[in-house]
Amino acid sequence: MVEIDVDYEGELRTRCRHAPSQAELATDAPVDNQGRGESFSPTDLLATALGSCALTTMGIVAQREGWDLTGAHARVEKHMVADPVRRVGRLVLHFDLPGGFEPAARRRLEEAAEGCPVMRSIHPDLETEIAFAWRSA
């Protein structure tokens, strides 16, 4: 179990603290939902969690196998929907990955990303797409 403390600071902003490390981050409501958009929104954190989790899970596999995944990059597009309620409707992950991996290694890394804990925790109504681009060796 991990505890995360969240304090409402007013004006649609929160301060979030990871209890084990005391690391902090702030959130702000987006401009299109009455905020100033000066920090991650709560739904931005969902998208961020997916990209970070996928890369971390790939990194675990790479580290275990002795593969160098340094320089791997993920970009997550978050698409909101309003019908029937405002929510994240689609997340699109674009991976830019280093070259030099054999096809079997690439597949293992891609499967790690697709099966990361955050991806497995997302409700099936939230559409997800993943694209992998492997650089030349």
What Rg is obtained from the alpha carbons, in whole angstroms? 17 Å
CATH architecture of the largest domain: 2-Layer Sandwich
Tell me the number of strands.
6
Quickly count the domains.
2
The CATH class designation of the largest domain is: Alpha Beta
- Within the largest sheet, what's the order of strands? 1-2-3
Secondary structure: helix percent: 25-40%
* Residue-averaged pLDDT: 97
N-to-C terminal Cα separation, in Å? 41 Å
Pairing-aware structural class of the strands and helices? alpha+beta
What name does the CATH topology of the largest domain carry? GMP Synthetase, Chain A, domain 3
Q: Main sheet, how many strands, which sense, barrel?
A: 3 strands, antiparallel
Counted by DSSP, the helix tally is 3
Q: What is the name of the CATH superfamily of the largest domain?
A: K homology (KH) domain
What is the general shape?
globular
What is the helix/strand order?
Answer: EEEHEEHHE
Low-confidence stretches: none
Strand content: 25-35%
Features:
2 domains; 137 residues; 34% strand; single chain; GMP Synthetase, Chain A, domain 3; 6 strands
Please describe what this structure looks like.
The chain is α+β, with helices and mostly antiparallel strands. It folds into two domains: 4-33, no CATH class; 42-134, 2-Layer Sandwich (GMP Synthetase, Chain A, domain 3), CATH 3.30.300.20. 30% of the residues lie in helices and 34% in strands. The protein has three helices and six strands; from the N terminus they run E-E-E-H-E-E-H-H-E. The strands form two sheets. A three-stranded antiparallel β-sheet has the order 1-2-3, with no helix packed on it. The chain has a three-stranded mixed β-sheet with strand order 4-5-6, with helices on one face. Helix 1 (42-65) packs antiparallel against helix 2 (103-114). The chain is globular, with a radius of gyration of 17 Å. The N and C termini lie far apart (41 Å).
